Amino acid sequence: MQAIRQLISNTVVMPATDIDTDQIIPARFLTTTSRDGLGSRLFHDWRFKTDGKPNPDFILNQPQASGCEILVAGRNFGCGSSREHAPWALLDFGLRAVISTEIADIFRSNSLKNGLLPIVVDEKTHAWLIGHPGVEIRIDVEQSTVSLPNGSSAIYPIDEFARYCLLEGVDQLGFLRKHSDAIAQFEETRPWKP
Q1: HSE-CB of 1 using CA atoms within 13 angstroms
Q2: Where are the domains of the chain?
Q3: If you ran DSSP here, which 8-state letter would residue 79 be given?
Q4: Within 13 Å and on the Cβ side, how many CA atoms surround 82?
Q5: pTM
Q6: Alpha-carbon gap, residue 65 to 83, rounded angstroms
Q7: Across the strands, what pairs with 118?
Q8: How far apart are CA 62 and CA 38, in angstroms?
Q9: Contact (CB, 8 A) for 44 and 26
Q10: First to last CA, the chain
Q11: Which end of the chain has fewer CB atoms < 10 Å from its terminal CB, N or C?
């Protein structure tokens, strides 16, 4: 997992509400346990026409989306079924953060465990971001802030353990491995045995 301390990027805006995990990555592409290549299937049914050619009207196929690492989405992003493939696909495509006024709990949890930063902001900040697509913003993970070019900023909520993992670039298993000596010491010295 790649550490995130600050993220400075232009935004790509998808104002649609209730974008579910099956729209993020359709179920027919969930036949793999590998993260590699899932970005090519991200928003597949929106990005591609029925003949397989890219849909030029879809925002991620337009030149201004190239290189953007921050997706600003409508309310209730990531709803629907639980699948780690959704944040995997977003990350593999090159996105590092999703901003909305509401992000589904299971999607948020899966994202944080895999290094994608799900950010919930207030309505005013969100409306400004939706109204200014392509703007460069700065996300500070340590301070939990999103800074806009108009001089305003917003604080977003994030679990302390999730923040630690993002800042250190470790997942939950990596966190446990970093403490394997302490775990072994505890197992040796505890007064009870399982």
Answers
A1: 26
A2: 7-138
A3: B
A4: 5
A5: 0.90
A6: 25
A7: 98
A8: 19
A9: yes
A10: 33
A11: C
Tokens of 117: 């930063």
Going by pLDDT thresholds of 50, 70 and 90, the confidence category of residue 130 is very high
Question: Is residue 8 classed as helix, strand or coil in its secondary structure?
Answer: strand
| Interatomic CA distance for residues 21 and 33, integer angstroms | 16
- Whether residue 194 has pLDDT greater than 90: no
Tokens 């939950």 belong to which residue?
172
**Pair of tokens at residue 14:** 């998808």
What gap in Å lies between CA 76 and CA 89, rounded to an integer?
18
Q: At the topology level of CATH, where does 7-138 sit? A: Aconitase; domain 4 (3.20.19)
Helix or strand holding residue 128 (H, E): helix 123-131
Token pair of 28 as six digits:
């027919």
The H or E element spanning position 100 is: strand 97-100
How far is it, in rounded angstroms, from Cα 175 to Cα 115? Answer: 13
For residue 173, is pLDDT > 80?
A: no
User: 55: Cβ–Cβ under 8 A, 6 or more apart, which residues?
Assistant: 46, 47, 48, 49, 61
Q: How is the beta sheet containing 97-100 ordered, strand by strand?
A: 117-120, 97-100, 70-73, 6-14, 136-140, 145-147, 153-155
Q: Which helix (H) or strand (E) covers residue 61, if one does?
A: none
Enter the tokens of residue 110. Answer: 């899966």
